[in-house]
Write a structure and sequence with these properties.
Number of strands: 13
Bound molecules: calcium ion
Helix content: 25-40%
CATH superfamily of the largest domain: Response regulator
CATH class of the largest domain: Alpha Beta
Shape: elongated
Radius of gyration: 19 Å
Largest sheet: 5 strands, parallel
Distance between the termini: 34 Å
Structural class: alpha/beta
CATH architecture of the largest domain: 3-Layer(aba) Sandwich
């Protein structure tokens, strides 16, 4: 029974996908165990936390995000989200809820294994890998998404509201990429005249001392959306 602790748990209702993940992992020497429902997985993880759980978001009995949250609160294990839903808000929410990484289907098995190895490495060496605590560094700003804290170059700290925090994290996760209003709002059907994202962006620019007339940080791409045009470095620990 003790060997089961080293098994990577795969929570996936599709047997074909589960088989692909299991084969990829086993090829690289990992033992795996397949769970079809969230209920079975959570019960097993509560008894013997596995080193890592691969979580599918679309499950028959629970939303995978609930599973991610519950694992983060109750079991000390790595979590990798594997999903067919490539939505920025899902990535952001998943990482906020405590997932270590996020892979979109269809996936390259070798890349999946590399990501899983990297999570396990970080978890084994939290001092150098920084467990869940990450801070984004851009220009002379620092942003801690765990506490919504934005720190200016002179050390002045501000706590962002949840909506602003979510928006800033969207940009920081995908710098130098044009993000549509829908992506930034986390919805697929934003009304054409809905200006709430634009209002939020202009508030965020103010926070970042970005001139709304000629912004250099968050630029408007007409007809497309917005882009954070600065490099972002993530620091851990
Ligand atoms: Ca599924």
């Amino acid at each position: 029974m003790s060997a089961s602790r080293d098994e990577i748990h795969i929570l996936e209702d599709d047997p074909l996908v589960a088989g692909t993940v299991a084969r990829a992992l086993e090829e690289y020497g990992f033992a795996t165990r397949w769970f079809r429902t969230a209920g079975e997985l959570l019960a097993a993880a509560a008894r013997h936390p596995p080193p890592l759980v691969v979580v599918d978001l679309g499950l028959p009995d629970r939303d995978g995000m609930d599973v991610v949250r519950e694992l983060h609160q109750t079991a000390d294990c790595g979590v990798l989200i594997l999903t067919g839903r490539d939505i920025v808000s899902d990535r952001v929410l998943g990482l906020e809820l405590g997932a270590d990484d996020y892979v979109v289907k269809p996936f390259e098995p070798r890349e999946l294994v590399a990501r899983i190895r990297s999570i396990l490495r970080r978890r084994a060496h939290p001092a150098t890998g920084g467990a869940a605590h990450r801070v984004a560094v851009f220009e002379d700003w620092r942003y801690d998404p765990g506490s919504f804290t934005l720190i200016a170059g002179d050390g002045a700290e501000e706590i962002l509201g949840a909506a602003e925090a979510r928006l800033l994290l969207c940009f920081l996760e995908k710098p130098n990429r044009v993000l549509s209003r829908e992506q930034l709002a986390g919805t697929a059907d934003l009304a054409p005249f809905d200006r709430s994202i634009d209002v939020r962006v202009s508030r965020l620019r103010k926070r970042l001392n970005d001139d709304s007339q000629s912004p250099h940080l968050i630029k408007t791409v007409y007809g497309a959306g917005y882009v954070l045009s600065v490099g972002v470095r993530w620091e851990t620990g």
